[in-house]
Each structure stands twice: as structure tokens, then as C-alpha cells.
Write a structure and sequence with these properties.
CATH topology of one domain: Transferase(Phosphotransferase), domain 1
Number of helices: 10
Strand order of the largest sheet: 1-2-3-5-4
Number of strands: 20
CATH superfamily of one domain: Transferase(Phosphotransferase) domain 1
Oligomer: single chain
Order of helices and strands: EEEHEEEHHEEEEEEEHEHHHHHEEEHEEE
Helix content: 10-25%
Radius of gyration: 27 Å
Distance between the termini: 76 Å
CATH architecture of one domain: Orthogonal Bundle
Length: 594
């Protein structure tokens, strides 16, 4: 059988001389280009066989950090040996400095072409394909390697013996997992987004830490597409597709899909990694059950059902779109201390254009001597600052308006940003330990996923701020205005929030344990905020009208003089141990204005 060429952009200009990669590789034939590399067919003199050679684009390997990472990952991929993995035979650096991988030239057709040809994959056949993919990934995870780019184009299906035999290829961007483990899941840190947008997990999309469960999500996307014939998430460009992973749930699967398979796929597609399958082994067990006609119970934490868990990411789409524009303008501007690039299929000078191919977006977008807004317009530049933090501090000291500033992924630890004008700024995934925002105007800013301790937000304007998933401790929010702010799943531990205005704020599943919440005001919402953790908090005089105390946690909490919802539990029902509640009178007085 003729060997299928990979799903790459075919390059018609055959007059280009192939590069000299290694002396043992001869008869190089250009196959095509993907988002990150050029692929050749070649003959390996030592192995006495044809191989595929993947050469990374030169614009990705100018930084020594990329080369080192490539060498580590290629070495790890070369140690993998499994029937359902395409083996990596060798790796090295070509004469022009380009890193390369030598892989098996796998026979068969890609799953992507199979879906394109047949429309969708019949259930019984699909389960067998899914199982083989999961077995390959289970083995790789045991060897501490995460694939990070599971998609139909990276799955080869060989049907020579009339039975599908699957091989997973392209561990070229896989991350090697450190030996240390946390709670049973090996972790890797990332400062960039690597992968294919249609199949990236939410944590990949946000540049968060990832573990083996990112492959489980990507496999969920693949399974959804095989069964339905359509991607779980797709938009007109890569950026909008990424936002869909974070903010939306897929359309329901076709009515004919069995309930068991439906529940399996949507569990794999859960936004929160803790709600997915925790290993490929668990997923394989459920695939076997579905294959045997058994039903699976719906996991109500999954992506199809738990809509209330998604958080408010309404502003993320605009933020990320504008990030790409900011990168574009920086590439067109004179060189700056920090350079940023998007990988494209051509090395010719051009404005980067988001595509559905491999995608690279650094998590620190603006650096060194200039700050741009979310449209790419430069807000401030300097010749004296040597870091982004210094640049921001200098701009704030000069009273520069930094509204809409693009500071995604920045390290602003220890920065003095008192009285800053930063309305609608993008501060997603920032490091903020000991940063002072005292009296700053941060209305509408986005802080999703940010971390820090000892932050000073006292008297700051934080209306409509998005604190989704932040982790702050020992911070000062005293008298801050948090009206209409989103604090879904925010962790604000041992902090001073005395006198904060939380009117109309979204506090679902926020954690304020051991914090000072005296005299806060949560009025203005008829819908109750669920699952708020108030253990050990000081709530004297607080207006808790919008807090659902039936689902809240508040042991060892001082509620003297607090204004509680009309349907609050009786004092004796608050805790199994009455001694954990300070024995003072409760005032269930009416809430003003309600």
C-alpha cells in the first residue's frame, strides 16, 4: 500500500534545494509544511529504511530556550516504545541550526481524512479507535510525557488487515513531566500556549499549569468530532476558537448517540480538570462499558450540564483578540528588549494571521520599554526602564492613563501602582505579590488566574473586575468598591475586606476563609450566591442578603449583627458544634431597600 502523506500544506515549489540535515539522511523529498515545521521523506542509511524528518522552522529556534526544550522533548519521545505510537528514531540539529526529528514514516490514512471522507465514524468502530488512542496515551503518561496536541490529524489509521490499527504521532511539542507529583497528577509549567486551537484544553488556552488531563480533554474533542462529524469548538479564527473552549459548551451530540457515549464524551470535556477522567485508564474502562452496551451515569460536573461553573469570560474574547493585534504592531515596530512572534507557515515577512494550525502565543505579551493597549496602540514608552514592571511603575508615577493596557502574564510583584489609572486593563495570569493598587482605578479590569500575597487593593475602584479563579492571600481590600465584580472560584484567604461594597457581585464558590468581612454589603441580587466559604471569617455587621447560607461554609464565624437572608438556617443549625459559633445575639432584621 502506498504510504499516505501527513496532513500538511503541500509545497508545490520543488525547485528549492532540500537542506543538509545529517549525513545518514539521503534522498530528501519535501512533503509539506505544518504550523511549526517542514516535513521531508528521506532514506536513513543506518536504519536502511524510509523515514519522516521533521525540521522546525528557524523563527522558532532562535532562542536557546527553545532548542534546549526541543532536545529534552525529543529525547523523551525517543524513549517511548508502544505499538500504538509512531516511534522517534533520532533527533539532532541540522547544519543551519534547525532542530529535527527522525520518525517512522507511518502507513495508513489520518483520522482527519477518514472523518472528511465518511462524515463521521460509526460507533463500534469509533470505540475501537478511541481505545487504542487512550492506550497509547496511558503508556506515554506513565512515562511522564504529555502529548499536548491530540487531534485527528495526529492519528494514523491503518486498515491493511481490514481491522483498524491506530498509531499516535507527533510528540514534537510534548512536555516532559518533572519527577515531582502533586496529588497524583504530574504537572508542567507553561509560559506559552502550544497546540491546535480546536483541541486545546481550557487550561492550555489560559496558559495555566497542565497535567495529563489536558490530553483527556483533547481526546474528548477528538471523540466528539468523530461521533458527530463536527468539531466540538470551531470559529472563524484561532483566537475565537480558544475563547469557546474557555467560555462555552459544545452543541448536543446527535440524538442517535447512546447516552453512555454521550456522558463519556462530556465528562472528558469538563472545563475543570478535576471533573474529567483522572487517567486514561479510567476512560478506557468506560469505553469498554459503552462498547458492551452498558449505560453510564451523567456526571453533573461535566461540560454539557454544569453551565453555572463556567464563570464570566465575556471579556476574554476581546482581550485575546487584541493581544494578537498588539503582537502584530510590536513585530512592525523597531526592536524592543523583549521580542514576540507568532509562528506562521511561511518565513516571508508578513503580518501574522491567526489560523487553525499550530498556535504559539507567549503569555507575557508586552515587555521591556513600552506598554500597549489592547488595540496595539502604544500607551507609554521609555528608554530608562529595564523591565515591564519598571515601565509600568514609571508610567503610573507620571500619571499616565493605562486604561486598556495589555499586561497579560506580566510579573508585577512588588510594583508601586498606587493611584494608577488602569480601567479595563488585561491583567490575566499576572504575578502580584506585594503589589500596591491602593486607590487605583481598575474598573472593568481582568485578573483571571492571577496569583499573589500581600497585595494592597484598599479603596481601589474594582467595579466589574473579573477575579475568576484568582488566588490571593493576606491582602488588603478595605473599603474597595467591588460592585458587579465577578469572584467566581476566587480564593481570597486571610485578607482584609472590611467595608467592601459587593453589591450585585458574583460570589459563587468564592473562598473568603479566615478573612475580615466586617460591614461588607452584598445587596442587589435576587439570585443567591452558592457555595461561599466563610469559615473562620469575621462577618460582624455584614449584609449577607445575597449569600445562600444553606450551601455556605461558616464554622467558627462571627455573625454578630449580621443581616442575613430571610430563609437562613436557625442558629442551632449553622454548625454541628454550637461552640464553634460565638454566642452573641443574631439580628435577622430586614434588609434596607429590598
Amino acid at each position: 500500500m502506498e504510504k499516505e502523506k501527513p496532513d500538511l500544506k503541500i509545497v508545490e515549489d520543488s525547485s528549492v534545494e532540500p537542506p543538509v540535515i545529517a549525513e545518514e539522511l539521503s534522498n530528501l523529498e519535501l512533503i509539506g509544511r505544518g504550523g511549526m515545521a517542514t516535513v521531508y521523506r528521506a532514506y536513513h542509511e543506518k536504519l536502511k529504511r524510509e523515514v519522516a524528518v521533521k525540521v522546525l522552522f528557524s523563527d522558532l529556534i532562535k532562542n536557546a530556550r527553545y532548542i534546549k526544550r526541543f532536545q529534552i522533548e525529543a529525547g523523551a519521545a525517543g524513549t517511548l516504545n508502544h505499538p500504538h505510537l509512531v516511534p522517534v528514531y533520532d533527533h539532532g540539529v541540522a547544519e543551519d541550526g534547525s532542530p529535527y526529528l527522525v520518525m517512522d514514516l507511518a502507513e495508513g490514512t489520518t483520522l482527519a481524512k477518514l472523518i472528511e471522507k465518511e462524515g463521521f465514524i460509526e460507533l463500534e468502530r469509533a470505540i475501537e479507535i478511541f481505545t487504542q488512542i487512550a492506550e497509547a496515551l496511558q503508556y506515554a503518561h506513565q512515562e511522564r510525557v504529555i502529548h499536548r496536541d491530540i487531534k485527528p490529524g495526529n492519528i494514523i489509521v491503518d486498515t491493511r488487515d481490514r481491522a483498524d490499527f491506530v498509531k499516535v504521532l507527533d510528540f514534537g511539542i510534548a512536555k516532559v513531566v518533572p519527577v515531582e507529583e502533586k496529588e497524583g497528577h504530574t504537572l508542567t509549567h507553561t509560559g506559552e500556549l502550544f497546540g491546535t486551537p480546536k483541541y486545546m484544553s481550557p487550561e492550555q488556552c489560559l496558559g495555566d499549569e497542565i497535567d495529563i488531563r489536558t490530553d483527556i480533554y483533547s481526546l474528548g474533542c477528538l471523540m466528539y468530532e468523530c461521533i458527530s462529524g463536527k468539531p466540538a469548538f470551531q470559529a472563524e479564527n484561532a483566537i475565537k476558537t480558544i475563547v469557546k473552549h474557555v467560555n462555552e459548551v459544545p452543541a448536543p451530540l446527535p440524538p442517535g448517540v447512546p447516552t453512555g457515549m454521550r456522558n463519556l464524551i462530556f465528562k472528558a470535556l469538563a472545563k475543570n480538570p478535576d471533573w474529567r477522567y483522572q487517567s486514561m485508564k479510567d476512560l478506557i474502562k468506560d469505553l469498554e462499558k459503552v462498547g458492551n452496551g452498558q449505560d453510564l451515569k451523567a456526571d453533573r460536573r461535566g461540560g454539557e450540564i454544569r453551565l453555572d461553573k463556567l464563570g464570566d469570560y465575556s471579556g476574554v474574547l476581546f482581550v485575546i483578540l487584541m493581544s494578537v493585534l498588539a503582537i502584530t504592531l510590536m513585530k512592525m515596530a523597531p526592536p524592543a528588549p523583549t521580542s514576540v512572534s507568532l509562528s506562521t507557515a511561511s518565513n516571508a515577512p508578513q503580518i501574522p494571521k491567526p489560523s487553525e494550525g499550530d498556535f504559539v502565543l507567549p503569555a507575557g505579551l508586552i515587555g521591556g520599554s513600552r506598554i500597549a493597549d489592547q488595540s496595539g496602540r502604544v500607551l507609554y514608552s521609555t528608554n530608562t526602564a529595564v523591565s515591564l514592571k519598571d515601565t509600568v511603575e514609571e508610567a503610573v508615577a507620571k500619571n499616565v492613563d493605562l486604561s486598556n493596557a495589555m499586561l497579560l502574564g506580566a510579573d508585577l510583584s512588588g510594583a508601586d501602582l498606587r493611584n494608577a489609572k488602569m480601567k479595563n486593563a488585561c491583567l490575566i495570569s499576572t504575578q502580584l505579590s506585594r503589589t500596591s493598587f491602593q486607590n487605583a482605578n481598575l474598573a472593568g479590569a481582568s485578573f483571571e488566574g492571577s496569583r499573589g500575597e500581600g497585595i494592597d487593593f484598599s479603596k481601589a475602584k474594582l467595579q466589574r473586575v473579573n477575579f475568576y479563579g484568582t488566588k490571593f492571600s493576606n491582602c488588603n481590600f478595605e473599603e474597595a468598591n467591588l460592585q458587579e465584580a465577578s469572584l467566581n472560584y476566587a480564593f481570597i484567604f486571610k485578607s482584609n475586606l472590611k467595608g467592601c461594597d459587593f453589591q450585585r457581585a458574583n460570589l459563587n464558590y468564592a473562598n473568603f476563609s479566615q478573612s475580615d468581612l466586617r460591614d461588607i454589603d452584598t445587596r442587589g441580587e435576587k439570585t443567591r450566591n452558592l457555595g461561599v466559604d466563610l469559615n473562620g471569617a469575621d462577618l460582624r455587621g455584614a449584609n449577607l442578603y445575597s449569600i445562600d447560607l444553606h450551601s455556605a461554609k461558616y464554622k467558627k464565624t462571627d455573625l454578630e449583627g449580621a443581616i442575613l437572608p430571610d430563609d437562613s438556617p436557625e442558629p442551632a443549625d449553622v454548625s454541628s458544634d454550637k461552640q464553634e459559633i460565638r454566642s452573641r445575639p443574631w439580628e435577622l432584621r430586614p434588609t434596607p431597600g429590598q
